[in-house]
TrEMBL record:
This is Glycoside hydrolase family 5 domain-containing protein. It comes from Candidatus Woesebacteria bacterium GW2011_GWA1_37_7. SUPFAM superfamilies: (Trans)glycosidases, Carboxypeptidase regulatory domain-like. Gene3D superfamilies: Carboxypeptidase-like, regulatory domain.
């Protein structure tokens, strides 16, 4: 049945390690009962929801008459305020997905970049205010757009006015190109980047590749982009029903799913930082690629390690930086000792004597 199918697919997505499920159901009243089925199952599975829809009239879907930008904003406010139970803290809400496909037009062709920016900002303010009115901490905006649209629309001022987030639905031929584009867009916008859609293969872009080549492509791209501190989220598109799908229609997983899941459910490294006298060090910065943790008062830390990560770097003001390989790190904890940058002779002598008499234990 339809409900069983929803339950099965949401379960698979949750098991893959996702934090959110992206739902593209339109916001019109006609479709609300179907949206609620997806949302209810997501809650059962502990998932937040990324609402990635718009009103059908925006693009003229399903025979709906097209609606003007101002009407779309008004309908969005009504939708949010009329359905407070649909939302939970931590959800994401996009007023319109790839707005350039709607009535307002693609600014690359209309030339009305300022008008497009103003529509996004007005939609962002309207939805943000609406969520405040229903006491929900939902992240508004996250306007997914083609990467080329983002380059001309998302300048630093606009990005700041939209919460500092740039979302790109971006399909390119090579992993290195995607990694480079993320950096370029983050730099030009001054914001953090979310991949609103990433998937492979798109035959017109990647050619006809098999499931193992799909796995390799995804592995290569994730190894590159996971190191970028400007990238804060990845939404794989799609679960099923397209050339990029991670599952066959019968629910059997493709090899690429294992790659994505290894990044959605990464290993967590834990350990302790001490100084050369064996005293716990607080406020040490422990980094693995773009992820970092600050040690607590007991010197303890935990930090996420992606499958492609190889080095853990520990630093603290006034101490020498330490870098270690973490590919085969101990599951029982990593112990780091930081040495002062400038240790005088007396300090070194005391340390040497203490070490000889076993008063402290130096661990590396």
């Amino acid at each position: 049945s339809f409900i069983n199918s929803i339950n099965d697919w949401v379960g698979r997505i949750a098991d893959a390690g996702a934090t959110h499920i992206a739902i593209g159901t339109p916001y019109d009243p006609e479709f609300l009962p179907y949206m609620k089925l997806w949302v209810a199952e997501a809650r059962k599975r502990g998932l937040n929801v990324w609402f990635r829809g718009n009103f059908s009239g925006w693009e003229g879907w399903f025979g709906y008459a097209k609606i003007a930008p101002g009407e779309h904003i008004l309908l969005t406010k009504v939708f949010i305020r009329s359905n407070p139970d649909l939302f939970e803290n931590g959800d994401i809400f996009t007023p319109c997905t790839e707005c350039e496909n709607g009535v307002i037009g693609d600014p690359r062709f209309t030339g009305d970049v300022d008008g497009f920016r103003n529509f996004l900002i007005e939609s962002y303010i309207a939805s943000s205010d609406s969520f405040k009115s229903i006491s929900r901490n939902v992240k508004s905006g996250y306007f997914s757009m083609n990467g080329d649209v983002a380059r001309i629309v998302m300048d630093k001022k606009t990005t700041e006015n939209l919460g500092g987030i740039v979302v790109i639905d971006h399909y390119v031929s090579s992993p290195s190109q995607l990694a480079s584009d993320i950096t370029d867009i983050a730099t030009s916008s001054g914001g953090k980047v979310v991949l609103g859609e990433i998937g492979v293969p798109i035959p017109d872009i990647h050619g006809d590749i098999d499931i193992y080549e799909q796995e390799d492509w995804l592995n290569n791209v994730l190894a590159l982009v996971a190191k970028n501190p400007d990238l804060i989220g990845i939404n794989y598109w799609t679960a099923s029903g397209s050339s990029t799908s991670l599952w066959y229609e019968n629910g059997e997983a493709k090899p690429a799913l294992g790659v994505l899941s290894s990044y959605y459910k990464p290993e967590v490294l834990s350990g302790k930082v001490e100084d050369s006298k064996g005293r716990p060090m607080s406020k040490a910065k422990v980094m693995v690629d773009a992820k970092y943790s600050i040690s607590d008062n007991a010197g303890n830390f935990s930090v996420v390690k992606n499958p492609s990560s190889s080095k853990l770097i520990v630093s603290a003001k006034g101490y020498k930086e330490v870098s270690i390989e973490v590919e085969n790190s101990s599951k029982e904890g990593i112990f780091i000792v930081l040495q002062k940058e400038n240790e005088n002779f007396i300090y070194k002598l005391k340390l040497w004597i203490a070490d000889i008499f076993g008063k402290i234990k130096i661990r590396f």
